[in-house]
Amino acid sequence: MRLAYRGAPFHGWQCQPGAVTVQAVIEAALSTVIRKNTKIVGAGRTDTGVNARMMVAHFDTDEPLRDPSRLVRQLNALVGKDIAIEDIYEVEAGKHARFDATSRTYHYYAVTCKSPFFYPLSWKAPEGLDFAKMNEAAELLLQTSDFTSFAKLHTDVKTNICHVTKARWEQIAPDAWVFVITADRFLRNMVRAVVGTLVEVGRGKMTVEDFGRVIAKRNRCAAGTSMPGHALYLWEVTY
Amino acid sequence: MRLAYRGAPFHGWQCQPGAVTVQAVIEAALSTVIRKNTKIVGAGRTDTGVNARMMVAHFDTDEPLRDPSRLVRQLNALVGKDIAIEDIYEVEAGKHARFDATSRTYHYYAVTCKSPFFYPLSWKAPEGLDFAKMNEAAELLLQTSDFTSFAKLHTDVKTNICHVTKARWEQIAPDAWVFVITADRFLRNMVRAVVGTLVEVGRGKMTVEDFGRVIAKRNRCAAGTSMPGHALYLWEVTY
Q1: How far apart are alpha carbons A76 and A85 in whole angstroms?
Q2: Which residues, 6 or more positions from A126, have their beta carbon under 8 angstroms from its beta carbon?
Q3: What's the whole-number mean pLDDT along residues A72-82?
Q4: Global pTM?
Q5: Residue B155 reports pLDDT greater than 80
Q6: Residue numbers in A near B82 (CB within 8 A)
């Protein structure tokens, strides 16, 4: 299934006891509609407050998918306003939403003016951020493979190696910018730590060379603070 | 001053006892900053929940306006996230934000798919609305001068005559439409009643001819129900 969600009302994607998560809401709806307890597997895990314009998830069922658009409507009626199930389609047995994904793209939105309409959906950037300098620093990410400096400590992943194929701030309106980053995989908290460190460069508190040294240190404590999650969007997953 | 606001947190523009209104919040901030009780006059009055991308207001003061951008910053620090003061500039004595306005434009946003990000800012339209038919009906508004059928009952205005110069649904994305309406003046509740009646046409419950008959009746009870305010934006005021 392909879906979108607003992150603010949820404690992230992944099921956890005593918390409302996107996965838990969808599993409850799906289990109700197809009358069988069913788990779903997402292409990734988004943290508390993080949005998804496009998430992909799979589930296993013995029943053939006879009327996908009816199932979409039934699920949408149960999952609330903050989740939109957009499409459900059958795939070959053995296909996997997470392991078969070849790239993920995230967007981080920054608005440099006061905006009554977009503040819940974007980060209020200070005036005078140097986006050109941030883009110089962002280019270093394309030559990096070990992202330990931007990885959350004490997680259970086996490697911190990622291949970033795009990392760039783009101006989308006179007062609005988006940071677009694409990689084969992302570590937990990685985009928010990368953006937080780029912002240090944009503020002039760190040079582009400093940014390169942060990467080389392979130490999370060298990087800047993590950015708030409400401005981050899982934008696309490709297979 | 030129400003914008999100309508959801407010009981409309106009001051009223015991309610948080946009005018009251700005007057409190302005009176604090310039250290004198000061009233503001807006170009129009928006109802509870209605947004303004651009509102214009004036105020009288004996002090010359020495540092307008500083005043803008001071006010923005006091009025909260849901109001943005964008500009303040001196005008000739006698200029009036309401009486001198020559046209107002409103936007009404309709989204035809489930949208976790835009539902607080737009109306969830049913599938299959006939926008071409709605535009046929909307053209009749350009030949109308008496808008009694779309006026709130029991208000204190002296005339229901308005001159509408634009009234058209425009598609802005595969699943998103906006109704743009411009007139020299608007009656209270008028845009929401017009859109509500157009939607009856779009749903096939009323023909274009029926819509013409609603206008001719000059009776509010003939028109459709009023649309929700959260999708309505005062978009522009011209002088």
Answers
A1: 6
A2: A112, A203
A3: 97
A4: 0.91
A5: no
A6: 116
A10-19 pLDDT tens trace:
999 999 999 9
Reduced to 3 states (helix: H, G, I; strand: E, B; else coil), residue B64 is coil
ipTM of this predicted complex? Answer: 0.85
- Whole-number Å distance between alpha carbons of A229 and A10: 12
Coil, strand or helix at A60: coil
pLDDT in tens, B19-70: 999 999 999 999 999 999 999 999 999 999 999 999 999 999 988 899 999 9
Rounded Cα–Cα distance for residues A224 and A215 (Å): 11
- Give whole-number Cα distances, A107 to A215, A222, B133, in Å: 21, 23, 38
Task: Say whether A116 and B76 touch across the interface (CB within 8 A).
Answer: no
The residue of chain B with its CA nearest to that of A233 is: B117
pLDDT at B39: 97
Query: Nearest Cα to B31, choosing from B70, B1, B74, B67?
Result: B74
- Does the beta-carbon distance from A84 to B114 stay under 8 Å? yes
Please report which confidence band the pLDDT of residue B217 belongs to, taking 50, 70 and 90 as the band edges. very high
Predicted confidence (pLDDT) at residue A153 exceeds the cutoff of 80? no
CA atoms of A61 and A184, how far apart (whole Å): 28
Question: Has B62 been annotated as catalytic?
Answer: no
Q: Using the structure block, give the residue that is written with the tokens 């209020």.
A: A124
CATH 3.30.70.580 for the A2-87 domain, yes or no: yes
Cα distances from A19 to residues A31, A35, A46, A233, in angstroms, run 18, 23, 14, 21
Segments making up each domain of chain A, as ranges: 2-87, 104-232
pLDDT of residue B197: 97
Compute the distance between CA of residue B7 and CA of residue B47 in angstroms, rounded to an integer: 8
pLDDT above 80 (res B111): yes
Q: Which of A117, A123, A232, A233 to mutate to test the interface with B (most CBs of B within 10 A)?
A: A117
Strands (E), A59-116: 83-87, 103-111
Q: Examine the pLDDT at A2 and tell me if it is beyond 90.
A: yes
Contact yes or no for B224/B194 (Cβ under 8 A)? no
Question: Least CA distance to A116: which residue of chain B?
Answer: B82
CA distances (Å), B43 to each of A131, A166, A205, B46, B97, in order? 37, 47, 44, 10, 5
Categorize the per-residue pLDDT at B99 as very low, low, confident or very high, splitting at 50, 70 and 90: very high
Give yes or no for B239 touching A (CB within 8 A).
no
B114 touching chain A per CB within 8 A: yes
- Among B6, B51, B117, the residue with its CB nearest the CB of A6 is B117
Name the architecture of domain B104-232: 2-Layer Sandwich (3.30)
Residue numbers of A annotated as active site = 47
